[in-house]
Fold these 3 entries.
Entry 1:
Amino acid sequence: MRARQYLLEPSSGFPMTPMIDVVLQLLIFFMLISRYLPPALNVTLPEASTARAEDRPSISLSITSDGVLAVDGAITAWPSLPGLLAGRDPQTLVRVAADRGADYGLVVRALDASAAAGLTHIALETAPQPPPAK
């Protein structure tokens, strides 16, 4: 009787399916958690009783009482703001988080740069108003 010969093929390598699952879950986690990150700058927002949350693609502008500007968490010089806003989708929401003590002229400057870039959907961020004491 003749001995059987078997062709031993190497394994297909690293299993990709579990790796894809892990990467997808990490991607979803970071997308969700990035929506809840506080502004990069420490700003004290004014309070409003009619404030509501917006859930759409947005760009965040933070202005401190000292006039420091941050765009999406990165501190930026004021002259570079129009260039950073240019070329964005016109439906993008611009969220302006200005400190209570910030110069009103800086808020207007941020609004002007947004309008010049064609971004007309603008929201001023506020803190929720505390409930009245009983």
Entry 2:
Amino acid sequence: MTKALLVDVAYCTGCHACEVACQKERGLSVDKLGIVLHKIGPFQITDKKWQYDFFVTPTAFCNACNPRTAKGKLPSCVQHCQTGCLEVGDLEVLKAKMSGSKKLIFAI
């Protein structure tokens, strides 16, 4: 099984909870992140409407929270995601969930 992280970009609000949870769980310093939030925008849609998009990507510091998942727990970023836009699981299973929406998938 190849473990993967599915990110539903449509629901990410850019709150940074995943970054903070990862740093705390792994004991990483402020200049190291296991998952990174990216902001795209703002884009002006109309005179009064602007749009931002957010998405996260795992980094080389991500260990998929193997010590947590070995105990049956969720990775820290997934557990603390306030919108539930992160999901971890088998790559092939998560690929099937990607159609028809704004989702990204990363092997971890």
Entry 3:
Amino acid sequence: MNDSQALPIGTAKRWYGLHDAQHLAHDTDRMVDRCAQHLADTHGLSRADAEQTAMQVRASMDEAVDGFIDIDRSTSRMVVVNDTRLGTRHMISIARLLALTRGSPPAG
């Protein structure tokens, strides 16, 4: 991480600390959007850079999990998730992910 990244990251962490309680747990998208707007306003970041920073900081603040997304095996249509606790690997299609994010039951 270079100095130009450290300042917005610190700002995002502070913003989440101050505003986390204002959002319901299921409203992460709105919280990330508001944090990104704050980063764009305070640091002059492009909207894309501000969103990327806001998402990365939010993800790093979530509790530790026993797994990770295997970027090398994932594609634009499916994500490969490794469960390090169980030593297993799972493929999740974009259709299932979209169903989860839309709050509808996944097909199949």
